[in-house]
Amino acid sequence: MKKRVIATILATVLTASMVLSGCGNGGKQETPATNDGGNQEAPAAPEADDGAEEEASGEAPAAPAVSHDQELTLEVYDVAANYQGLQTGWYGKILKDKFNLVLNIIAPQVSGDGEALYQTRTAAGNLGDIILLDNADMLECVDVGLVADISADIKNYPNLMKYWEQIEKFNAGIGDGIWAIPTEMNSNGPTEYMSETVSSMPRIPWDFYSELGKPDLNNLDDLLNALAEMQKAHPTNEAGDKAYGMTLWKDWDSTSIENVNQLTKWYGQEVNGSVLIGEDHSIVPLTDKNGAYYKMLKFFFKANQLGIVDPDSATQDWNSACDKMKQKRTYLVWNNWMQGFTNSPEIGEKGANYMGMPLKDMKVFQTSDYYYGSGRVFGVGAQVSEENKARILEFLDWLASPEGLTIQHAGTEGLIYTVNDDGKYTLTEDGYNRFTSEIMIPEDQGGGNWTDGNNQVNQWIVASIEMNPVTGETFVPDLWASYLEKNNTKTTKEWREKYGAQNEVEYLKNSGMMSPVPSINMSLAIDTTDIGLIRSQCKTIVCDTSWKAIFAADEAAFDALWDDMVSQLEGFGWNDLVAFDTEKYQPVIDARKAAQ
Amino acid sequence: MLGKMNKKKWYSIKLFLYVLPFIVLVLLFSYYPLYGWLYAFYDYRPPRPFSDAEFVGIKWFKSLVENPVKVAQLWQVLKNTFVMSGITLGTSWLPMIFAVFLNEIRCVPFRKFVQTVTTLPNFISWVLVYSVAFSLFNSTGMMNTLLLNLGLIKEPVLFLQSSDHVWLTQWLWLTWKNLGWAAIMYIAAISSIDDELFQAARVDGATRMQQIRYITIPSLLPTFFVLLMMNIGNFLSNGMEQYYVFQNAFNKDYIQVLDLYVYNLAMGSGSYSVSVALSMLKSIVSVLLLVGANTISKLTRGESFL
Fold first, then answer.
1. ipTM of the shown complex
2. A328's torsion region: left (phi>0), alpha (psi -120 to 50) or beta?
3. Would you say the pTM of this structure is higher than 0.90?
4. Do B249 and A12 touch (CB under 8 A)?
């Protein structure tokens, strides 16, 4: 009986994942390699540091020589990927030419039921050759022996050793040995926030906002009204497709709806499992009626009452939501990297870039740059042979090298950027448009289009704001002098005029609407079976109710759903879960207080 | 004498060898997996291997019913299961009637055509059925476009997100997919009815409806009852693929049947132990239902099938 059930389940999961991955094969790697949409000169100070680090790492022993004669296909279990299958295109060709490697990306986000994929693969004892996981999962996998210890090898890799302080600090929390390499690290120091944009705030098209006469937005209601006006004035995009004030997607949901989670940051709280952690170091349950989750859920509900929520929101996935962003079919976006799909110098010159809109009553939650890492870590599978392990580490080391980082965060020379006389880089025309339009790649460089061929692993060991020792500028093009000059568009000028600040971070800081909390990357307590069961049952209730609440008929129905959710959650042990999470995140809060 | 015994013995061995492969299959696929029931008594959570798991007794069985909210959810799941299985059982005469009427079509090419068209959906997987449903009924799908263009509605109707009539619509999808296939058994049964019965009836002046009423249907009833009994045994296993693909936040309260609930618990959360406990209960209830149905059959029709 059980076996048959499992067989049916597996068959369904497989079919589903095949169909889904088939649909996803447009190969949309949708997250641009940047956290910034910036327009200010890059600070020069960290350059000196960087040079020093370079020298130091030069003394490290060289990596062991490995043979590239045999083609090696590596399975990459990748929680960040939005694409499942072989890495192809220009980036695939570089890996093939340079290392004779082929990456086979296994993407839980794409497979339909990521949790199931993770569990079946871990139960089978082989997650992948290269493993990218959230901290807690990595801890668990190290514990059961799915991950290889690289403490004997890593010392040979100078580019990874540049981040030894961070790597060592993270692994100290796991126990003996070096098991995991944090992602998105930099060498600017633990409390810096270098970006010119915050990770989440309201972002709307400047041209439509100008049409409304640039009204002051004091609160969420003003924002909703502005969006409603915009949708009334522009019910479709230029191609005639229906446009909405906002569009949501469900495939990123966790313990609660991810879209709401991102918006809680506007009002000073970040969702972590069942609790909200405040920028004032407070910690309250997600279900707190005075908390930001309730507030922002209600914001979506009110939006739906005004008819400005895309009706496909509850059924569509990220890829279709992203297409709508690219086609200007949605007027509110929030994460700074989403501007990669909506903005470009040309659009900016027309005054139509999406710009951050500070609401007067906002208090933005923003962590400092991920000096210690972002919360996800790379590891090497325990089943990998010594020989292949050397090839994997060589590849990971390259990912952290100036050459590898330039390719990951910008692209290839000639096609995406050119080198100026002074050694700094300038984006080409194709380079400027690489996220917003289809850039075809010459056949000898891998063929296909740029987006499909881009690095589908979608996670970086070193952050894009790291300084490139070769140019003395960041790896991310958005902060290059040449870019800032070109990007000083009509939109930017008008925005600066209205808000009297160079960029949104400056504005928010000056008006006391933001003070970055130190970013902490530590390994936290893992769920016990009991807590795991409670979490999963509560997750379903929170997510299902949240979606229903957004589309509720009226305010009474909304409140009834919320109250019903809270009482149901209690029955499923929510209070135990909150207690567990409160204790789990206390070390983070303590560390933040200590760092400030 | 001895030779005769040996011959007889050898004959039974031969017969036994004939069935042996099937016994092995049954043991392998129906009894060996019962070993997995062990998981219900341990604190098992991947990626940790089972050998490390701690014995917890009947903790998970108790946790299923430890408070009213959990009982209410389980109750809702059982209700969904019973109602949807009930609707299916209650309408299980449909394929029979369909077969009877199909058989009355005199134009053979048309009959074959209808039969083929109604059988085909059975071979389409639920995932594909859902993608068809999605493209027909999403907010920019054919149905909404049609209704919008006809001016019947102003805003798109979100058919798939509706929490109304979930049981009914799910039954319609199931019937659409299964009707033709389920009728095959009856079509075969009809062709085995002695033609002399019909000829005699016609001589006696029976109309077509009377022939159906007094010959065809009574001859099909044994087949019908066997199939019905088998369905009762499967009462709790109304499958999960269909409900899995159609489920969303809005209809989940009504669509979550037992199998889907077990799946959501196990695969969604890694609570394998709890879901094993739940599916054990399910097996026991299934056996009880089957025995019950058998007893009723014995009492009412004097035949049993166990």
1. 0.78
2. left
3. no
4. no
